[in-house]
Amino acid sequence: MPAGIFRVCLVVIAAIVNQPLLFPQENCTVPEHAEDIIQKMKEREERLRLAQLRLEQEVAEQEAKQKALEEATEATEERKEEKLQWDLWTALSMVIFLLIELWRQDFQEGIGQDTGEEDDMAVLGKAFKGVSFPDKAVLASFYEKRILGTAGEMARMREMVEGFADDLLEALRSVCNRDADMEVEDCIGVGSMYENWRVRKPFVCDLIVPFAPPEPYCFRSQTWCSGDSFPPDEQGYGTIKVCRAGEDAMGCICDKTKLGEDMLCLLHSQANTARPSSEMEELLCFKNTHYLDADQVMKWFQIAVTKAWNRISHKYEFDLSFSLLDSPGALKIKFRSGKSVAFNLTPVVQYENSDVYFISHFPRSSLAADLPSSTHWFLTFAVYERRFIQLVSKMLPANACHVSCLQILSFLHGKQCSLTGPSGLTNYHLKTVMLYLLQARPRQDWAPEKLEARLQDMLKFLEKCLHEKKLYHFFIGNGKVPAELGFPIVFQKAEPLNLFRPFVLHRDIYQKTVDTFHEMLRNTSALINEYTVHIPLPHINGIHKESL
């Protein structure tokens, strides 16, 4: 058996050794197509090498792009972190600044515009220092010559204008359709002529005329302090909606039913209560709304006054005309002798059951800037202002000097404006200053012999307000209004209304106003001496004592 296996292995080895392809002979030749194969293999190897180079290049580019993207992402994140840190610091700085400013205002002014302490009146500005102020004798002579003599003339003019206005309004009621037109009430005298402090001529009486819609309609008013948010430029204004009597603001007359907030009244839906647009326009509403339009009221009132005058003109020996086109009731009486008397008859709407009124247009545009729209009405507190002055006057010493101070200050400001042009200050601002001092000063400080001191107090207070650009409305936000006036509590709890806000928005007007005020201070003695009787000093003192 082992011998057989050995023989087989020997045969195999011999076959392998004698294989001609394994050991070719020396004279053998390479096949003819072998060179082509080798050449193709080289070309393929070259292509593979180039493909490998391209692939390596693409990989390198991708890696570079990825690296650049990562760097950009890191830089963006760093910038965001830096910006976030900067925003946090900026916000924190603003909060700290606002807190400091609020603390400063509270520390300097207290609540509202309280001027009860003597220190509030002791600070004079640079413009006031060095100004020569008239003494008591000169002021007494000036007041008697220039101002005191006008009281009788104002009383006669008020009596004449009120009598004619009553007759004109009675004729107006007769020419109006009581079933369709507005109902006009009796006129009310307001302003400087009825508070006895007007000094500049020509004298002009201001009369307001409340009116109401015909039945079954009523007015529903909404003010900026009623709870809804009003932008800053609309504070001090309100809107008036025309509704049916017994109808709430949403148009449903079921005000006595206790419906849930998620329930709808199917009996008095808005579709059933909607009125035609033409009917609402007849009620002087703005087009396609239920809100009273001041421009429509102006047109209606002018037409009604014209019809009323045509009915009664034969009874009078003078002519009546509108003196200002942009004011609905600016009227002028022209006598045949050439003399004339001007007065304002302005339509107003009563606010609820108070003596606050929505006024369509201000005579001579002294208080308010342009209205945001014709459906916005400014509120006037003129009746309460007159009532407050009357109430306080009863508590002051005899012949108190509060009205005299206001008259002299109004005269000086008017004369200065006639020399240098109008400024942002108005007589209403001057009266507001007096109202604050009446509330802050003890009663005995208004004795007639203290005229000079109180006049200086008014100038100091006014200068302080101009410097701070803050003079708050006397009634709005003032919790110290006497309860005897019956003033609406909603306005007492409202935020104070800054009458000097236009100075913050218009720096050119503010600078002009400050320059005019400083010029008035420098010219005070000259303006007063110009209208003072030049008589011996002892006689002046005698006149002053008699006036006391």
UniProtKB/TrEMBL annotation:
CDD domains referenced in this protein's UniProt entry, alphabetically: UDM1_RNF168_RNF169-like
Cellular compartment(s): Cell membrane; Nucleus outer membrane
Pfam families: Mab-21_C (PF20266)
Membrane disposition: Single-pass type I membrane protein
Domain annotation Mab-21-like HhH/H2TH-like: ranges: 403-476
Alphabetical keyword list: Cell membrane, Coiled coil, Glycoprotein, Membrane, Nucleus, Signal, Transmembrane, Transmembrane helix
Coiled coil regions in record: 34-85
Domain of life: Eukaryota
Location, primary (coarse class): membrane
Signal peptide: 1-24
Gene Ontology CC terms, in alphabetical order: nuclear outer membrane; plasma membrane
A single MF term (Gene Ontology): protein kinase inhibitor activity
Entry similarity comment: Belongs to the ITPRIP family.
Job description of the protein: Enhances Ca(2+)-mediated inhibition of inositol 1,4,5-triphosphate receptor (ITPR) Ca(2+) release.
Identification of the protein by name: Inositol 1,4,5-trisphosphate receptor-interacting protein
Natural source organism: Urocolius indicus
